[in-house]
Each structure stands twice: as structure tokens, then as C-alpha cells.
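Regression test attached.
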Amino acid sequence: MADAPTLLLERLVKQRVTLLLKDARQLTGTLVALDEHMNLVLDDADETTAEMTRHLGKVVLRGSNVVTLHAPQAAAKSA
Amino acid sequence: MADAPTLLLERLVKQRVTLLLKDARQLTGTLVALDEHMNLVLDDADETTAEMTRHLGKVVLRGSNVVTLHAPQAAAKSA
Amino acid sequence: MADAPTLLLERLVKQRVTLLLKDARQLTGTLVALDEHMNLVLDDADETTAEMTRHLGKVVLRGSNVVTLHAPQAAAKSA
Amino acid sequence: MADAPTLLLERLVKQRVTLLLKDARQLTGTLVALDEHMNLVLDDADETTAEMTRHLGKVVLRGSNVVTLHAPQAAAKSA
Amino acid sequence: MADAPTLLLERLVKQRVTLLLKDARQLTGTLVALDEHMNLVLDDADETTAEMTRHLGKVVLRGSNVVTLHAPQAAAKSA
Amino acid sequence: MADAPTLLLERLVKQRVTLLLKDARQLTGTLVALDEHMNLVLDDADETTAEMTRHLGKVVLRGSNVVTLHAPQAAAKSA
Amino acid sequence: MADAPTLLLERLVKQRVTLLLKDARQLTGTLVALDEHMNLVLDDADETTAEMTRHLGKVVLRGSNVVTLHAPQAAAKSA
């Protein structure tokens, strides 16, 4: 069987990732923590909406708000 | 009894699949991981909305956002 | 006590069923798999919306999106 | 203590019941199965919306879509 | 510690209660059954919306649709 | 470790609290009961919406509808 | 493995944090309690919406309403 999604997520720790949330906001930051609910902690995070970008710093995110997470650099390696 | 949906999903690993999400976005990529919540990981993924298509690379998807997953090639084989 | 809904669902395996989803889409296909969350797999499935019908082939459906499932032929037998 | 709702529901098996769903559709049919999640199976069911009524036959309903179920005949007996 | 909400609910059995639902409908009836999910059964129930009132008789209500339940008579006693 | 939120809630029993609900209604009353799902019972409660205030008496509230609870007097003491 | 999000949250106790809620309200206060559902208690909290800011005092927040929590000072330290 293939690796589970949360195992793959753990390999992304310390990398820059981009999250799309259910309310259409986008967060980009360094992944520093996660759990099995996909609760996530980002360091040095920026929030982008249709109107603006702002720096948030350390952000704790409740997993139920996450739609997708992608990691451009990881993709380059696996492609 | 018939096979369970997650067993059938595992057979789709390494195949191209198309996901429809609750927010109406569509993702197409190679299925590389999944778990019992239908959390999924796609490699080499493209996102398509009504307005545009963009390349995302590796994508982790929270299962609660998935509506349907279909695999055109698997369908051809089983039909 | 009457049979449980999931037992009745299993008897519909290999029959054509029609699903109504929360986003108002309708799917018709041959039921090939299901589990206790009402995750379902359809073969040879067609999707119908207010605007169009398209062929999807094999479809995996997350149970939380299902509103109703009906089976015209099963109804004829039980009526 | 009073009887639990699911026990009262079981006594409605084989009776005609009317369901109101979260999407405002109404279903009327003979209750043939239920479980503890309020997943329900109706036989000989009709669906009514603001625009139309149509016959669906046997219907499996995911409990999370149910708002209320009422049984006019049972009410007459208990009133 | 104070009594739990479900214990207080059980004391309301056989009293007239008014429920406000998430879809803004209001139901008034005699509470006859309840469980720990706040699934409820009302006898001799009336439904009131912005447009109309109608008699439903016995009603089974899925707890997840309940916002509040109040009991005017119980309030008078405890005030 | 700090005290858990439910422990802090129990200390608010017998105090006047104000609840903001997901449907934007506001309830003010004396907290008389609560459980681990944040199901709550208020005595002598008033409901306030954008249009009006009305007296409800004893109210049982399903926790899933609560956004925030605040207690002006408790705040004054802890500040 | 990295620390879990709830462990990182506990280190923020006694610090000023800013919460964004699903209904777009923003709360700023001193974090005094939390649990594994991300239920939170803030002291000396202010609520900010598009229209106004008001002082709420002590606030108990149901975790399911939280989108993100950020702590400007913690971010400065970890950056």
C-alpha cells in the first residue's frame, strides 16, 4: 500500500507550503507542526486574499478549514 | 459482499484521477496516497476552475472537501 | 426489527441506481461498492446537472455528499 | 425515563411517513428500515418540491439530511 | 457541579416546549422522547414559519437541526 | 498546564452570560447547566436579534450553535 | 517528528493572540485556556468586525468556529 497522506505531510515539515482555506484565503508559510486532524502550524506566514497580502507570523490553523496544501518544491522533486 | 470503496480507491494508486471538490474546483493528478478519511495526495496535479487552469505540483487534499473522484482509464477497463 | 439501511443497500449492488447529491448534481450508474459511511462506487456512471449530462465512467463518491439514492427497478419489485 | 426517539421510530416501520429534508424537499413513503444515524429506507416514495411531485420508488436516505419526520396516522393515535 | 443539560431536558418530558430549528422553522409540541444527541419526539406538534402554521401531529426531530428549546412554563417556575 | 475551557465555564454557573450564536442571535441569561459538548441551559433568558428582544425563560441550547460566550462580570474580576 | 499543534498552542498561554472566526469576526485577547478541540478562553478580549470594535472581557470560544490563531510576538521570536 502507498504511504498515508499524513506521513507525506510530515516530510514537508520545514518546507514552504501554500494552503487554500474554505473561506478562499490562501496562506503561505514554513510548515512546523501538524497532527492527524490536519491541524497545522506555519512559521513566517503570509495571508493572501483577493484584496491584499499581509504578514501574520506564526499561525495555528484548524484542520477543518483546509481544502488543499501544496508544496511547489516537493512537487519539483517528485515529478 | 462487494469490495469496499477504499479498497477500490487503492487500486487507483499511480493512475490519473479527477476530483471534484465542494467549492467546485476540479483537480487532476496522479493518485499517490490515501487514507480511510479519503484524505488524498496527488502528484503532478492541475487545478481547474471556471476561470483558469494552473499547475500545483504535489497536493494534499483533506477528504471532507471531496465530492467525487473518477478515473477515466479505470472506467474504460471495467466497462 | 426491520433490516438496516446498509443491508438493503448491499442488495442493490450490481443494479442501476440514481444518486442525488447535496450540490444538486445527479449521478446514475451501476452500484459496485459501498461502506458504512455510505461511501459508494458506481461503474459506467453519468452525471446530470441542470445544464448538461456527461459520462464519468467509474466514480468514487464520498458518503457525506449523498442526499438520496433510489433504484427504480428495486422499487418496482418491492411495490 | 421516556422511550428513546429511535425506539419510537421503529414503531413507525410499515407506516406512511413524511420527511422534510435540509434542502427543503419533502419525501413521503412507507418506512421500511432505519438505523441509529437516522439513515432511512422508504418504499413507494414520492418526492415533492415547490415545483413538482415525482415518484421515486424505493429510496435510501442519509440521516444527516433529515430535519423532521412526521407520521399523520401515528399522531392521530397518540393525540 | 450543576445538572447536565440532558438531565434538565428529561424533566421537561410531558411539557409543551418550543423549538427553534436551523432553517428558522419553529415547532411547538409536547416533549415525549429525547436522547443524548438531542434527537427529540414531539406529540401534537405545530410548525410555524414566517408564512404559516400547520399541524404535524407526532414529529421526530434530528438533534443536529435544533438551535434552542424553551419551555415557557418551566421558566415561570424557575424564575 | 492552564485550566481547560469547560472547567472555566463551570465557574460561570449562576452568573449572567451572553451567548453569540451562529445564526447571529444573541442570548443573555443565567448559566445553570452545561456539558462537554457546550450544550448549555440558561434561566431567565432574553433573545436579541437585529430587530427585537423577547423573553424566552428557560432555554436549552445545542452546543454546536454557540460561537462565543462572554461574562462581563467575570471579565471585570479577572482583568 | 515535529511538535503537535496543541503543544505549540499551550506555549502561547498568557500571550496576546488574534483569532479569525468563520463568521469573519476577529478576537484579540490573552490566551488563558484551551483543549484538544481548540476550545479557547481569552481574557481581556476585544472583538473587531468590519463595522466596529467592542470590549468583551472574558470570552469562551467553541473551537469549531476558529479558522486561524496567530501570535505576533511569538512569530517575532521564532522568525
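Expected vs. actual: identical. Chain D has two helices and five strands.
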